[in-house]
From TrEMBL:
InterPro entries: Acyl-CoA_DH_CS, Acyl-CoA_Oxase/DH_mid-dom, Acyl-CoA_Oxase/DH_mid-dom_sf, AcylCo_DH-like_C, AcylCo_DH/oxidase_C, AcylCoA_DH/ox_N, AcylCoA_DH/ox_N_sf, AcylCoA_DH/oxidase_NM_dom_sf
Domain Acyl-CoA oxidase/dehydrogenase middle: 157-253
Domain Acyl-CoA dehydrogenase/oxidase C-terminal: 265-412
GO terms of molecular function: flavin adenine dinucleotide binding; short-chain 2-methyl fatty acyl-CoA dehydrogenase activity
Stated name of the protein: Short/branched chain specific acyl-CoA dehydrogenase, mitochondrial
Protein family (similarity comment): Belongs to the acyl-CoA dehydrogenase family.
UniProt keyword terms in alphabetical order: Acetylation, FAD, Fatty acid metabolism, Flavoprotein, Lipid metabolism, Mitochondrion, Oxidoreductase, Phosphoprotein, Transit peptide
One GO BP: carboxylic acid catabolic process
Record field: catalytic activity: 2-methylpropanoyl-CoA + oxidized [electron-transfer flavoprotein] + H(+) = 2-methylpropenoyl-CoA + reduced [electron-transfer flavoprotein]; (2S)-2-methylbutanoyl-CoA + oxidized [electron-transfer flavoprotein] + H(+) = (2E)-2-methylbut-2-enoyl-CoA + reduced [electron-transfer flavoprotein]; valproyl-CoA + oxidized [electron-transfer flavoprotein] + H(+) = (2E)-2-propylpent-2-enoyl-CoA + reduced [electron-transfer flavoprotein]; hexanoyl-CoA + oxidized [electron-transfer flavoprotein] + H(+) = (2E)-hexenoyl-CoA + reduced [electron-transfer flavoprotein]
Length: 420
């Protein structure tokens, strides 16, 4: 294995810079901390950025086009993501994880997306939704049972959406029935489930008390080999094709009482909280994608593509487009890092996460689309990555809350602030 694929986890563990671990209600005191740029990285975060960038460029990039064409994640890439510590970024070292902070995960997600958004979203969902769910709501036994596996060898999948329950996530029909012995039976189906083909662990949301509406929703931990669980269909998609998206079915899946995550009827609270954090991860994926598309095109027009006797990138009209796109990327990154830092500081960040996801997905679509035009024919063919970046960008306005859902969230919070 190349030196670039060595785990950064061990190197980071030796770092003297440690980020304080905060509870949800314990704000970070920054009185004595000098003002710094929003995108300033600690020593640990900067090391993460460098190591993941090197790993992505040297290990993932050579396989990116092949995985896209095959519509399948290379098993060796998955294995190396675990070896690099990328699947347990916030999991404490005592459970086999890297023991780092939320922004470190955001940095990793962004750097992976500069090369391959499919690999990026695999690690994003695993870290910001699944691992976070266990860390925040799991019992000590649940943490000991699952976190070491999730950190080292088992991919996690987040199962909320259903055929008629997308943006209206809490209209879900999957049913959980409690048995006399305290165990549960789950029946129903889930759709658009990321990581489902490769996952060994599923976090499933089901309604235990439909008469209570969304307040009847509970969350359950489901191992892949549980009888009654099945992958019904793998979707063929426009973009992020190497990332698996499947329909799963639950046919009287029997789970022990210990499979309940947290408390009965609080699944909707967990889902809301997790998705609010997860949107920052998706926003980071989109800014990384936009920067990757921009860099790919910029290098081509400033070094290779010539028209009328000079490099295309030397024409003022092209320079202005490149400058405008780069400015928008940096503005989006500012929103992403601001949301991440506010989350870490224990401040309210829901509107910031929504704005970051909304704007970064818009920028990713614009920049990746423009990049194809800047590159001309080479941007349109599948020999390079330009058209792949554009295809991969489209999902940013859809999953973990559509752009309209983000706008609604932002507007509601603004209305609350400016009325009454």
């Amino acid at each position: 294995m190349a030196s670039s694929s060595r785990p950064f986890m061990r190197a980071l563990a030796r770092s003297t810079v440690r980020t304080p671990k905060l509870s949800a209600c314990e704000p970070l005191d920054i009185t004595d901390i000098p003002p710094t740029p929003i995108t300033h990285l600690s020593e640990t975060e900067a090391l993460m950025k460098d190591q993941v960038s090197k790993f992505a460029s040297e290990v993932i990039l050579p396989k990116s086009r092949e995985m896209d064409e095959a519509e399948k994640m290379d098993p060796e890439i998955i294995e190396q993501c675990f070896e690099q510590g990328l699947m347990g970024i916030e999991i404490p070292e005592e459970y086999g994880g890297a023991g780092m902070n939320f922004t470190a995960a955001i940095v990793a997600i962004e750097e992976l997306a500069r090369v391959d958004p499919s690999v990026s979203v695999m690690t994003d969902v695993h870290n910001t939704l699944v691992n976070t769910a266990i860390l925040k709501y799991g019992s000590e036994k649940t943490k000991k049972d699952w976190l070491p596996q999730l950190a080292t060898n088992t991919i996690g999948s987040f199962c909320l959406s259903e055929p008629i329950s997308g943006s209206d996530a809490f209209a879900l029909k999957t049913r959980a029935t409690k048995q006399p012995d305290g165990s549960y039976l789950l029946s129903g189906s889930k759709m658009w489930i990321t990581n489902s083909l490769e996952a060994g662990f599923f976090l499933v949301f089901a309604n235990l008390d439909p008469s209570a509406g969304y307040k009847g929703i509970s969350a359950f931990l489901l191992p892949r080999d549980t009888p009654g669980f099945a992958i019904a269909k793998k979707e063929k998609k426009l973009g992020i094709k190497a990332s698996s998206t499947c329909v799963i079915t639950l046919d009287d899946v029997h789970l022990p009482a210990s499979a309940l995550l947290g408390r009965e009827g609080e699944g909707y609270k967990y889902a809301i909280g997790l998705l609010n954090e997860g949107r920052i991860g998706i926003a980071a994926q989109m800014t990384g994608l936009a920067l990757g598309a921009w860099e790919n095109a910029a290098r081509y027009v400033w070094n290779d593509r010539r028209q009328f006797g000079k490099l295309v990138g030397e024409f003022q009209g092209m320079q202005h487009q490149l400058a405008q796109a780069y400015t928008e990327i940096q503005a989006a990154r500012g929103l992403v890092y601001n949301a991440a830092r506010k989350k870490e500081a224990g401040e309210e960040f829901v509107a910031d996460a929504a704005m970051a996801k909304l704007f970064s997905s818009q920028v990713a679509g614009r920049v990746s689309g423009s990049a194809i035009e800047w590159m001309g024919g080479m941007g349109f063919v599948r020999e390079g990555l330009a058209e792949k970046y554009w295809r991969d960008s489209k999902i940013g306005a859809i999953y973990e809350g559509t752009s309209n859902i983000q706008l609604t969230t932002i507007a509601k919070l603004l209305q609350k602030e400016y009325t009454g």
